[in-house]
């Protein structure tokens, strides 16, 4: 649909025209920068920016955010034209609530001006750097955690030119910070990675050790001045569409070309390790803890893993959104068994949390018909997501001598999805950084489900060795893949026992 763009564009001059309940808690330009965020996507705008604005509104502090887009310039241009303002609409079956957010003190486009981003990272006023850059940007092997640089990162590590990757930006920024004696800083991963703080630390330490052209003593400086607190973030934020922008225009009375929509629910669990201080996020409802690990495993396995399962099975069955997919007969029952029999048995949850109850809440959130989260959006980058969402669950269950039959169904649905066509024969896009090797493996084993499973299980940068060499897991995946290929999703789920 067409977006209505009139003369009234969101900006500081339009704030008085907004409904009172839609105005920002803080006015851009009144709060100095204390945070740099890498990854100016919809999730950041609907999550960390919202939490930080609420924290500053409640507790004060110089914690304005300069948000950096590592790739697309379009969102930077849209937000800059709106005086760093954008709106978030919380969508529920009962209706929507739209509010403008004023947390951003600036925006930058890294490819256009990487030196400006490096200077920001070296600024002593900046004491926190947060990241939502997706799993791919860390360039870590999802199984081993070792840095696997592509040609761009290899060039960044060699030095000599402006950085073009996220690790390269961090490396050059910290080197400049150390040279300027700008003080300590916390780097905070908000991506869905297992042990995301430790992963970020591992990436950073490996990059510093391999880098050329950095100051002597940088390894020691980073060790003594940089922390990487772990986090767990949670909010369902679909990709923005023209409908998102049009709905925001109707709610606000002005046009917002950076509008995002999200579910009402939001959670942020943060390890409290900030040597230069931090916003009062606890005043915005965040959980501050010594160990985010149990919360992270809870979310990755009982929410993200179930989300992936719904996406693959839903896409194969021809369902456009996650909410549509949950209407497939028997799918909710199968997902409940995945949660109760596999996920809940695979780890110890945070104190006071029942995994089955958390999973039931997740299913209710997935079923929100106002959130048009496309199955194909959730299904991308499976090779990067499945290890922490599903394969670690399987590995932990098998180490404890337990079956992982429902987890095997998720793996089989991913393999069936990777073949590139739905149950009715329509083509499905397979977007994955390892699409080439995975497709080649599937082509090599296409004569049978067993051949396909064996070929993909041989890819050690996707399937952990303890899973790949487990005969019971292999047999379960083959059985599910055979059923999905012969009968399709609906019949397979109907016969699941």
From TrEMBL:
Alphabetical list of Pfam families matching this protein: Mannitol_dh, Mannitol_dh_C
Sequence ranges assigned to domain Mannitol dehydrogenase N-terminal in this UniProt record: 34-282
Residue ranges annotated for the Mannitol dehydrogenase C-terminal domain, each copy included: 293-477
Record keyword Protein biosynthesis present: no
Ranges annotated as spanning the membrane: none
EC class: oxidoreductase
UniProt protein name: Fructuronate reductase
Organism: Micromonospora vinacea
């Amino acid at each position: 649909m067409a977006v209505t763009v009139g003369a009234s564009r969101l900006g500081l001059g339009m704030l008085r025209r907004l409904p009172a309940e839609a105005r920002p808690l803080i006015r851009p330009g009144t709060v100095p920068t204390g945070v740099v965020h890498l990854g100016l996507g919809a999730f950041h705008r609907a999550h960390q920016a919202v939490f930080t604005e609420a924290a500053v509104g409640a507790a004060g502090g110089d914690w304005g955010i300069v948000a950096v887009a590592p790739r697309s310039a379009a969102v930077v241009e849209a937000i800059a034209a709106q005086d760093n303002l954008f709106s978030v609409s919380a969508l529920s079956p009962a209706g929507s609530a739209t509010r403008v957010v004023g947390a951003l003190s600036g925006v930058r486009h890294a490819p256009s001006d990487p030196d400006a981003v490096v200077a920001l990272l070296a600024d002593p006023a900046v004491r926190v750097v947060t990241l939502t850059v997706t799993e791919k940007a860390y360039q870590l092997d999802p199984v081993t955690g070792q840095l696997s640089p592509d040609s761009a990162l290899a060039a960044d590590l060699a030095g000599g030119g402006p950085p073009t990757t996220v690790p390269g930006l961090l490396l050059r920024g910290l080197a400049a910070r150390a040279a300027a004696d700008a003080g300590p800083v916390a780097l905070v991963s908000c991506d869905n990675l297992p042990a995301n703080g430790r992963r970020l630390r591992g990436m950073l330490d490996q990059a510093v050790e391999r880098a050329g052209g950095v100051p002597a003593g940088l390894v020691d400086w980073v060790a003594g001045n940089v922390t990487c607190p772990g986090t767990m973030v949670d909010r369902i934020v679909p990709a923005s569409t023209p409908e998102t922008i049009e709905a925001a225009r109707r709610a606000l009375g002005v046009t917002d070309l950076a509008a995002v929509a999200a579910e009402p629910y939001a959670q942020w669990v943060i390890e409290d390790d900030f040597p230069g201080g931090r916003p009062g996020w606890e005043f915005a409802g965040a959980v501050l803890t010594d160990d985010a690990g149990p919360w992270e495993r809870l979310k990755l396995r009982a929410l993200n893993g179930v989300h992936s399962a719904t996406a693959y099975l839903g896409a194969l069955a021809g369902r456009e959104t996650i909410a549509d997919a949950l209407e497939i007969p028997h799918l909710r029952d199968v997902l409940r068994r995945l949660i109760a029999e596999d996920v809940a048995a695979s780890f110890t949850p945070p104190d006071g949390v029942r995994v089955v109850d958390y999973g039931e809440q997740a299913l209710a959130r997935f079923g929100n018909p106002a959130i048009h989260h496309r199955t194909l959006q959730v299904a991308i980058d499976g090779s990067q997501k499945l290890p922490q969402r599903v394969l670690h669950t399987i590995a932990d269950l098998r180490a404890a001598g337990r079956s992982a039959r429902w987890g095997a169904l998720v793996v089989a649905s991913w393999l069936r999805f990777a073949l590139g066509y739905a149950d009715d024969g329509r083509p499905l896009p397979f977007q994955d950084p390892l699409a080439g090797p995975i497709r080649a493996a599937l082509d090599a084993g296409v004569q049978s489900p067993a051949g396909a499973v064996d070929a993909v299980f041989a890819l050690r940068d996707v399937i952990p060795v303890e899973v790949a060499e487990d005969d019971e897991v292999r047999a379960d995946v083959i059985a599910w893949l055979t059923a999905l290929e012969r009968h399709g999703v609906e019949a397979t789920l109907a016969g699941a026992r």
